[in-house]
Amino acid sequence: MHSGSSFVFKTMASNYDNTILKVLAEAGHSGMSVQKVARHVFNASNSFFEPVSYDDIRRYVQQYVLRNSKGTDALLLNIGQRGIYKINPNSAQSQQLMLMFSDDEDEEAEKRNDEDQSLSLF
Hints:
Blueprint: H1 2-27, E1 32-33, H2 34-45, H3 54-67, E2 76-78, E3 84-87, H4 92-114
Antiparallel strand pairs: 1-3, 2-3
Helix pairs in contact: 1-2, 1-3, 2-3
């Protein structure tokens, strides 16, 4: 039974990772503070049926940012102010992520365009 809970945590962590990266991608070159990223992740993840603790998410975001901002080719980059990070545009990983995000946005735009926009008569 322990492996099942491990799978759920890994899936949740993966969702948190994706949300962190999307938030930082939307923040652009100016970056965003770890606290604001944590708030966005909390709002995206918290629900009535699956409540999560803000403190747990904040700790996770802090650890994720620290883990992914070390080295010259790190995924994340501190912009010079304490606690504010952005996606490193020179990182090979970030360039791949930007391609994935742009593909996701293109697919969403196509879905919106394909929806039936006609009015119902009933």
